[in-house]
Amino acid sequence: MSMPAVRTEHLTKRFGRLRAVDRLDLSVESGEVFGFLGPNGAGKSTTIRLLLGLARATAGSAEIFGIPAADIRAAHEKLAYVPADVALWPRLTGAEILELLARTGPGVDHAYQSDLVEQLDLDLRKRAGTYSTGNRQKVALVAAFATRAPLLILDEPTSGLDPLMERVFRTAVLEARRRGQTVFLSSHQLAEVEAVCDRVAILRSGRLADIATVTDLRRLYRTEVEIGYTGPPPDLSTVSGIDDVEPVGPGRLRLALTGPPAPVLRALAAAEVTTLAVREPSLEEIFLAYYGEANR
Ligand SMILES: Nc1ncnc2c1ncn2[C@@H]1O[C@H](COP(=O)(O)OP(=O)(O)OP(=O)(O)O)[C@@H](O)[C@H]1O
C-alpha cells in the first residue's frame, strides 16, 4: 500500500487549558479528496496549521507522505496550500505573484494555470493591494491547483467566491483527483463537500466525531419515503426500521426509514403502490443532527 498523504497520531495542540486539537488520529490516502468538517472553533484551522508546520504540536505527530510536518522544507516539497485568510504582497500584480509562488512550489503546469485564470475571470494585471477577498482567494487557488504538488491543503478556500466561481473550484478539485493529487479540504460548505469528497471527517471540540464516506454517513441517517397507493393502505405495522408513518393526503403516506429498504419494499409489494419517492438526507441535515445531539 502507498504511504498515506496525511497521517496524524494522537495529534494534540493545547492553548493554555484549551485543547484545540485533542488526540486526533487521521489517515488520508494518496489520491483521495478528503473533507474536513466542523463548526466554528472545532479545531480545523489549528489542525491545518500543524500539518503545515506553522504551529508546533503539544503532543502526537503529523506526517505528510511519511515526512514529519515539522520538517518544513521536505514536507513543503509535497504540498501546496490555500489558507483561510489569503494575504498577498500588495504592490505586486497578480501575474507577478503567480510567478513568485510558482518558483517556490514543486513545479507548475503553466497551460493549466492560464486556463484557471481565464475560468476564474481573474485580472492578473492589477496590483494585489486592489484585490477583493475573493480575488485574493482566486490567486491562491490558481497557484495551488496549477502545481503538481501531490497534496493540496485547502482551508475554507471558497468562502469569498460566488456560485459561478464555486463551480470552477469544484471542477478543479475533480481535475486534481483525476491527476492523482490528494486534496485535503476544510469547508463549511456542505454542498461542496458532498459534491467533491470521497470521505469526510467531522471534528467536534478538537476531537474526531466521525469519519466516513458521504454515502455511509447518509446510511446512518433517516431517509424520507413517500408512497402513493390506491385501494387499502399498505400494512407497515410489523416492518422494522421505519417510524413517523403519517398520512399526507388521500392515498399518500410518508415515513422515515433507517437502514436497508428491503423490509419496507416487501411490505409494499402487497399493496397497489402508484408512486414511490425516496429522499436521502443532505449532508447538512446529517451535520445538524450531529450538532443537535451534541447540544442536547
Ligand atoms: N493562537 C491561539 N491562541 C489561543 N487559542 C486559539 C489560538 N488559535 C486557535 N485557538 C482556539 O482553538 C480553538 C480551535 O480554533 P480553530 O481556528 O482551529 O477552529 P476552526 O475549526 O478552524 O474554526 P473556524 O471554522 O471558525 O475557522 C478555538 O477555540 C480557538 O479559539
Automatic annotation (TrEMBL):
Location of the ABC transporter domain: 6-230
SMART domains: AAA
Alphabetized Pfam families for the sequence: ABC_tran, DrrA1-3_C
GO MF annotation terms: ATP binding
Membrane topology: Peripheral membrane protein
Localisation: Cell membrane
Predominant location: membrane
PANTHER family cross-referenced by the UniProt entry: ABC TRANSPORTER ATP-BINDING PROTEIN (PTHR42711), ABC TRANSPORTER ATP-BINDING PROTEIN NATA (PTHR42711:SF5)
Protein name: ABC transporter ATP-binding protein
Annotated organism of origin: Paractinoplanes aksuensis
